[in-house]
């Protein structure tokens, strides 16, 4: 039986999220190391207050810390070793740390830079992201093509499932997406709590700067299979992981392909780190044979018990 760790991305953040993490030695160690590193970077350690989370860089840093802390609580404190890691958007940095490709200190510096670059790229207007549920990927792509203009561009940013797509664009273009999606029969439209346009050409310069930054890091081969954002494929190459971390900000996230492949490669159980449960729900539709467990919904102790039972018996496929 094989285990996967899933790491959520921007939009899943919650005020006080670092203060409600499980109380374990590994979590405490990650929080201490993160505070020290943020101080060296000249950044505040209070990145998860409601006010701080208005800043894209703070959101991404907080999600990185939470993801790594939860992963280490599962592995270091409870002996759960993943064979696969997959992170959505900034969650990919958590996956890379867990796979041993980059250190937590390196990830904090990279994510702080990433957040600042993403903000700068969208400082010229009102940008954002929105999720549409109930339409095929093809229909979503057609909507993006229909409503986009030179002044109000919009792109397909994330293909999360067979029927959920996330768009990035100007606020005006996203309103047009809402109208077009309703006409096309979408079940739901939701503006996400994201103040930038990500995973689209608007972030091309960000991707270039990230590639240059990450090029200076040592090459450490992954200890587990890493599922890429940009291609939805599994890799055990350090260079492929670093390329994915750099380029994903400007390319469509192929989350649906990644999660389906994870099941095909033999993953039988997946634990989603805090905060949230979106990835757990997406996995239920993409790979129903993989039992999905949300740490936030279940709590650490119950999640560990559930995962151990599944890994021992190979039964109990239904997500919780």
Describe the fold and architecture:
By secondary structure, the chain is an alpha/beta fold. The chain has two domains: 2-121 and 202-313, Malonyl-Coenzyme A Acyl Carrier Protein, domain 2 (3-Layer(aba) Sandwich); 127-194, Malonyl-CoA ACP transacylase, ACP-binding (Alpha-Beta Plaits). Helix content is 46%, strand content 16%. The protein is built from twelve helices and ten strands. The protein has helices at residues 25-40, 56-77, 91-98, 104-121, 137-147, 171-184, 204-214, 238-247, 255-264, 278-286, 295-298, 300-313, and strands spanning 2-7, 84-87, 127-133, 154-161, 164-170, 188-191, 225-227, 234-235, 267-272, 291-294. The strands form two sheets. Strands 8-7-2-1-9-10 form a six-stranded mixed β-sheet, with helices on both faces. A four-stranded antiparallel β-sheet has the order 4-5-3-6. Strand 9 (267-272), helix 10 and strand 10 (291-294) form a beta-alpha-beta unit. Helix 4 packs antiparallel against helix 7 (204-214). The two termini are 18 Å apart. Mean pLDDT is 95; it is low at 315-320.
The rounded Rg comes to 18 Å
Count of runs of 4 or more consecutive helical residues: 12
Instruction: Give the fraction of residues assigned to helices.
Output: 40-55%
Largest sheet: 6 strands, mixed
Strand order of the largest sheet: 8-7-2-1-9-10
CATH topology of the largest domain: Malonyl-Coenzyme A Acyl Carrier Protein, domain 2
Mean pLDDT: 95
- Counting helices, strands and paired strands, the structural category is alpha/beta
DSSP E strands, number: 10
> How many domains would you count in the coordinates?
2
Helix and strand run: EHHEHHEHEEHEHEEHHEHEHH
CATH homolog superfamily of the largest domain:
Malonyl-Coenzyme A Acyl Carrier Protein, domain 2
Strand content: 15-25%
- Which runs of at least 5 residues are low in confidence (pLDDT < 50)? 315-320
Q: Give the CA-based shape.
A: globular
Specify the CATH class of the largest domain: Alpha Beta
Distance between the termini: 18 Å
Going by CATH, the architecture of the largest domain would be 3-Layer(aba) Sandwich
């Amino acid at each position: 039986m094989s285990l996967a760790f899933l790491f959520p991305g921007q939009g899943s953040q919650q005020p006080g999220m670092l203060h409600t993490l499980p109380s374990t030695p590994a979590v405490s160690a990650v929080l201490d190391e993160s505070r020290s590193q943020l101080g060296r970077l000249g950044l505040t350690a209070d990145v998860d207050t409601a006010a701080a989370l208005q800043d894209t860089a703070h959101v991404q840093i907080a999600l990185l810390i939470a993801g790594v802390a939860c992963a280490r609580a599962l592995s270091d404190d409870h002996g759960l070793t993943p064979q696969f890691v997959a992170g959505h958007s900034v969650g990919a940095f958590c996956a890379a740390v867990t796979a041993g490709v980059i250190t937590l200190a390196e990830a904090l510096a990279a994510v702080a830079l990433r957040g600042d670059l993403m903000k700068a790229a969208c400082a010229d207007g009102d940008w954002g992201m929105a999720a549409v549920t109930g339409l095929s990927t093809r229909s979503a792509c057609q909507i993006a093509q229909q409503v986009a203009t030179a002044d109000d561009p919009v792109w397909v940013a994330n293909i999360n499932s067979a029927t959920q797509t996330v768009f990035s664009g100007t606020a005006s273009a996203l309103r047009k997406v809402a109208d077009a999606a309703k006409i096309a029969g979408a079940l739901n439209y939701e503006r996400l709590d994201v103040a930038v346009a990500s995973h689209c050409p608007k972030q091309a310069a960000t991707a270039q700067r990230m590639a240059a930054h990450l090029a200076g890091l040592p090459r450490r081969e992954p200890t587990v299979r890493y599922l890429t954002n940009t291609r939805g494929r599994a890799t055990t190459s350090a260079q492929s992981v670093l390329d994915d971390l750099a380029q994903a900000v400007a390319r469509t996230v192929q989350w649906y392909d990644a999660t389906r492949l994870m099941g095909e490669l033999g993953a039988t159980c997946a634990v989603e780190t805090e905060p949230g449960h979106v990835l757990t729900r997406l996995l239920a539709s993409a790979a129903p044979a993989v039992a999905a467990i949300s740490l936030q919904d279940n709590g650490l102790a119950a999640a560990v018990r559930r995962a151990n039972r599944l890994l021992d018996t190979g039964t109990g496929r239904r997500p919780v």
